[in-house]
Design goal:
Chain lengths: ~500, ~325, ~325
């Protein structure tokens, strides 16, 4: 096997008094896909940032081509051929795709930017990725997955020797993931080393040559991917056997009343005539490709966007013009955009957790002690892992942030909960906790709508799955019909059921 | 980023307590103390009650307006119209009281009518700003820049380009509202204190205050947390309008007049007081007490400069500017990085 | 809005102008009414327009007000290009920035009358009408020196840092310095009542003994008086303002002891300038040169001649 191109020796990193990475050794070889695996907070992003020159280690050293290096900044690292693609995309939203791809390296002619050459170069890069992103569009107007592809094109357009990717497939559709893997295989064939962070064990199994597993900031070991099953990986990550990921599915009682009912609901520009319902004690899955209108449908219903159509809660017609109306009718929505819409990052955990149900703590003055008690209870119930309770919410890892958002919703004591991609960007252990929490909700007779792009999650939790394609409901699946293949067939438009006639829509008994 | 699992070794309790003192938040207060020391060294009369009450009374107008501005700015907005609004409300109040004078009402009744009208108009003017911003979906900067011009030209129009003066028959009744004392402390200082305390309670202890901070911190998060963002933001402008009206009630009896030059640049002084006090211009966090300190500091700088001939009067602006920048630098310079 | 409306109005005016052929158009460009004195200028300009247009039907005045020197320069271009003025009466916002725009109007054959603030280059204007800032400072100084008998302590409140303020201040100091009168301090009060109030409060804190205040402007003087009343020191000293605000002149007429006199710097000079300019077009009288209005000392004896109760100033 070839000489390692990038080696970390005894890499240690501390932020202030907190050490997050303890003396980790790792080597990356040219021509391999090297996966970094670990729960959220295990230190894999930190390790990747140390290796790519984005952070300096507190102790230990990085060897590049056998010689110790210390990059003054990430630009120097990029110049040397180590490119990091961030978890948070690093594009300028108001520039076009082409301008972003050539940003900082614009081709010049006569002292001016040569736009034709720039466009050609951007087009060429995106063509190698086989994506159809319009180069003249502003990045702001792209979908998240398109942005990801632009980010990758931007990285590849630099003479890359080590490509570091932090959970790149989180926002990609299945096809796009395939394209990305294809690209990775071609880069690897050219001798590029790919360092790859992901939570998705099956993806790692499919693409990685070797896997380095971290737990709580310490190295568990580096293994050949072929030698491990996904269950092996999960066990080494979590440090214990991961029993079944999903709680046992309890059947919905035949007489369970309908909690929420949508009848011919349209959200302008996104959803046309959606009809569905969810019963108490039931998980209704909502599947579809990115852009199918799943998020928009429920944002419309919850009063977060304009909508028309009929909505009934517990059989009573309702019209929620504002999220507050829905809250008073005990319906809560967990946003898919945790970073942008879920938490106030610079505010304390306490202020975040009580934000949505603040009226319970203000009579009329906000009661500090009760708030703190609520936070303690939430930390306990949701197993939020924090050293101190007075930190800002933004300092938590993704999984802990999600638990905090969930705790915030549940303080409003909803009996219908809409969970939109509840496990996106979250490690296996936390995912499992969230799945078991959903089961607990069912036991409390809550109705759950689960919007998810992860088919195993839908199959593992949902009693029924409604599939959307391009803003219309193409089918409702349950029982034996509920398989990954059928969901994909409905999601991609290969199959489509006729819309239900009014007679088929269940009525609520008085 | 990783969760900080490791716990730092326990430090002695007093050290922890010392570390928990929010030093950089206290910088405005330290700067204020420093100014007081400088002032008392420069002139023996500086520390007299008369002079200190003069400064506090002067800071009351900007201070009360700045309490309102604290809500607007923490909520992620800005209000440039306050100075013009003050001028317009002053002019309108004087004209109304002059018109009522000599009618059926006693002079006290006339003044009470005037006060009532101003407070009502302040609410309406603030609501107009707020609704244009939230319902009209127009940038606060643009809306209030527009109303800045509107109020300013309305007062010029009311004054016929000149000065609107309060009827001398009313001045005697109204004068004590500015010049009077209660327990030895001037009325405007009382008013400033009451407004500041009520503002602090509203901002720091109530649901409304928490919502304002949430909206300024991230409007989308607030919206998704079922907060009525438009309503809360509008209310911050209503509070601002009310504060301007209270300042006007105190201002009119001072000189008994209003003209097109009344309240010029008050908006910038109010915003400066808020920022000096440690509130972030981008919104999300801040304190009323900081704003109070900021407003007092602004008046104090002018007072100290007037009490000395060491610095050429041509350079007053330079000194003022340096102190303001310095105060904010100390506060930010210690943060992070 | 304002601008386009103005252009529309101007176009309409132009159409009429063509129809009537023989009308002479006189443009009047003045600062907007942002404080008392300019408010007076605006009022007197409007008065003069009404009166002169009634007296001379073939004359037409177009009054533009500007909020800044740049806006005033734009106004000049509009007056020339759209209104096609034959004469221009201008009270420049500031001397330097408006010298070239006025010179280019002159080059196009427009008759130029400059009011109050002289241009930076000589020989552009046909007529110059102004108050006299130097004399204003001198008259004020003479009164204070005489009243104090050549000795005592005074404080000075200045205006906005400008050439006008400097001329007044320098002339005042030139006369006061040789005497035994001590100028305790001078600070800017920006021709503004609120600033006058606050600066005077601090002077009162700082100086236990003050014999006279030169406020040089009536707006400042009104603020000073309130500060004196608050401190209860209104009987120790007197105040000299300036300009000729009607309230102050009324006080002088009524024998006020706190402000016993006023020094004239009349906003009505704009009307004088318009009148002089009008004469150029309706008579054969030679109209050229400099018309300097004296800065008269207004005392209880002559105050009635300068009292205009209808003026806003």
């Amino acid at each position: 096997m070839s000489e390692p191109i990038l080696v970390g020796r005894g890499l240690t990193k501390a932020f202030g008094p907190v050490e997050v990475l303890h003396a980790v050794d790792v080597d990356v070889r040219p021509g391999e896909v090297h996966a970094l695996l670990g729960e959220n907070g295990a230190g894999k992003s930190t390790l990747m940032k140390l290796l790519s020159g984005y952070h300096d280690p507190t102790a230990g050293e990085v060897l590049f081509d056998g010689a110790p290096v210390r990059f003054p900044d990430s630009n120097a690292a990029e110049a040397a051929g180590i490119v990091l693609i961030h978890q948070e995309l690093n594009l300028v939203p108001d520039l076009t795709v082409e301008e972003n791809v050539v940003l900082g390296r614009e081709p010049h002619r006569l002292g001016l930017v040569d736009r034709r050459a720039a466009r050609a170069r951007a087009r060429e890069m995106l063509d190698t990725l086989r994506t159809e992103v319009p180069v003249t569009k502003r990045v702001r107007d792209l979908s998240v997955s398109q942005m990801q592809m632009v980010e990758i094109a931007k990285a590849v357009s630099r003479e890359v020797r080590v490509l570091c990717m932090d959970e790149p497939t989180d926002v990609l559709t299945g096809t796009e993931t395939e394209v990305l893997f294809d690209l990775m295989r071609r880069l690897v064939a050219d001798g590029v080393a790919v360092l790859y962070v992901s939570h998705k064990l099956d993806e790692i199994k499919a693409i990685a040559d070797r896997v380095t597993i971290l737990r709580d900031g310490a190295l568990v070991g580096t293994f050949a991917a072929a030698d491990l099953t996904t269950a092996d990986m999960a066990r080494r990550m979590v440090g214990r056997d991961v029993a079944d990921m999903y709680p046992p599915k309890r059947p919905v009682p035949a007489d369970a009343p309908v909690a929420l009912e949508l009848d011919d609901v349209s959200v302008p520009g996104h959803v046309e005539g959606a009809t569905l319902h969810v019963r108490r004690g039931e998980v209704l899955g909502l599947a579809g490709l990115i852009g199918a209108g799943r998020t928009e449908l429920f944002e419309g219903v919850l009063g977060l966007r304009p909508m028309h159509g009929r909505v009934r809660k517990d059989g009573r017609p309702v019209r929620w013009r504002h999220a507050e109306d829905a809250k008073f009718d005990r319906v809560a929505y967990l946003t898919e955009d945790r970073k942008g819409k879920g938490l106030l990052h610079e505010k304390s955990l306490r202020e975040n957790v009580t934000l949505q149900a603040l009226e319970r703590f203000a009579r009329p003055f906000v009661h500090d002690r009760q708030e703190r008690a609520a936070l303690e209870a939430a930390i306990e119930e949701f197993d939020v892992r924090v050293a101190r309770h007075d930190v800002a919410a933004g300092t938590l890892s993704g999984g802990n942030q999600q638990k905090l958002v969930l705790a915030k919703l549940m303080l409003t004591e909803p009996d219908v909960v809409v969970l939109d991609e509840p496990t996106r960007g979250i490690d296996v252990g936390t995912k499992r906790q969230i799945y078991f929490y959903v089961a607990e909700l069912l036991a409390r007779n809550v109705a759950v709508v689960l919007i998810s792009s992860e088919l195993p999650e839908l199959l593992g939790l949902a009693h029924r799955v409604v599939v959307l394609k391009d803003g219309t409901v193409t089918g409702t699946l349950e029982g034996a019909a509920l398989t990954e293949e059928t969901i994909m067939a409905y999601a991609t438009g290969l199959r489509r059921d006729p819309p239900p006639t009014p007679a088929e829509v269940p009525r609520v008994r008085a | 980023m990783s969760a900080p699992e490791a716990v730092a070794p326990p430090a002695p309790a007093w050290r922890g307590a010392l570390r928990r003192v929010p030093w950089q938040q206290l910088t405005p207060l330290l700067a204020l103390v420093l100014l007081v020391v400088v002032g008392s060294l420069l002139h023996p009369s500086f520390l007299t009650a008369t002079n200190l009450f003069n400064v506090l009374t002067r800071s009351a107008f900007i201070g009360i307006i700045a309490v309102g501005a604290t809500f607007v700015i923490i909520g992620g907005g800005i209000d440039l119209s306050v100075g013009s609004m003050a001028a317009f409300l002053s002019g309108a109040m004087i004209l109304l009281m002059n018109a009522l004078q000599g009618g059926a009402l006693s002079p006290v009744g006339v003044v009470l009518m005037g006060v009532g009208m101003v407070l009502g108009s302040g609410l309406v003017a603030g609501a107009a700003n707020g609704l244009a911003i939230t319902r009209g979906r127009i940038e606060p900067f643009i809306v209030t820049l527009g109303t800045l011009g509107i109020f300013r030209s309305l007062v010029t129009y009311l004054a016929d380009g000149g000065t609107i003066s309060l009827d001398f028959g009313l001045r005697g009744v109204y004068r004590p509202v500015f010049y009077g004392n209660l327990l030895g402390i001037p009325i405007p200082v009382w008013a400033f204190a009451v407004v500041a305390v009520l503002g602090a309670i509203l901002l720091h202890r109530t649901r409304f205050g928490r919502y304002v901070r949430a909206i300024g911190s991230n409007q989308e998060v607030a919206r998704y947390a079922a907060i009525r963002v438009a309503r809360i933001r509008t209310l911050t402008y209503v509070i601002q309008g009310l504060c301007v009206a209270i300042a006007v009630v105190l201002y009119v009896p001072r000189l008994g007049s209003a003209s097109a030059s009344t309240g010029i640049l008050w908006e910038l002084e109010a915003i400066a007081a808020v920022i000096i006090g440690g509130t972030a211009l981008k919104g999300g966090s801040g304190h009323i007490w900081g704003t109070v300190v900021g407003a007092i500091m602004l008046s104090l700088i002018g007072n100290v400069l007037n009490l000395t001939s060491v610095i050429s009067e041509y350079l007053n602006g330079t000194v003022q500017g340096l102190i303001i920048i310095g105060a904010v630098f100390l506060q930010r310079g210690r943060q992070g990085r | 809005m304002n601008r386009s409306f103005r252009i529309l109005a101007a176009v309409a005016t132009l159409a009429f102008g063509v129809a009537l052929a023989q009308t002479t158009t006189i443009g009047v460009s003045i600062p907007a009414a942002t404080h008392g004195w300019t408010g007076g200028v605006n009022w007197w300009a409007a008065q003069a327009k009404t009166r002169l247009e009634a007296a001379y039907p073939n004359l037409e005045f177009v009054i533009n007000t500007a909020g800044s020197p740049a806006e005033q320069a734009d106004d000049l271009e509009d007056l020339i290009a759209i209104n096609q003025i034959d004469a221009l009466v201008i009270l420049p916002f500031e001397s330097d920035p408006l010298t070239e725009p006025v010179a280019s109007a002159k080059d196009r054959g427009v008759f130029i009358t400059v009011v109050d603030r002289g241009l930076s280059r000589a020989g552009i204007e046909d007529v110059y009408v102004a108050g006299n800032n130097t004399v204003m400072g001198q008259v004020s100084a003479e009164y204070i020196i005489e009243r104090l008998g050549g000795q005592g302590k005074i404080v000075v409140l200045r205006g906005i840092p400008t050439a006008i303020d400097n001329e007044r201040f320098d002339a005042f100091m030139a006369l006061v310095e040789p005497t035994d009168i001590e100028v305790l301090d001078s600070q800017y009060a920006n021709w503004n009542r609120d600033d006058g109030f606050e600066v005077m409060q601090d002077f009162l804190t700082r100086f236990p003994e003050i014999d006279a205040v030169w406020a040089q402007d009536d707006d400042i003087a009104l603020g000073v008086i309130e500060a004196l009343r608050q401190a209860g020191r209104e009987n120790e000293l007197f105040v000299v303002g300036g300009a000729g605000m009607k309230e102050i002149i009324k006080g002088v007429m009524d024998g006020d002891t706190l402000i016993p006199v006023d020094v004239l710097y009349p906003p009505a000079m704009i009307a004088t300038a318009m009148e002089v300019t009008a004469l150029k077009f309706v008579s054969d009288v030679p109209i050229l040169g400099r018309y300097i209005l004296d800065s008269t000392l207004i005392t209880p004896e002559n105050a009635a001649d300068y009292y205009f109760p209808d003026s806003p100033f």
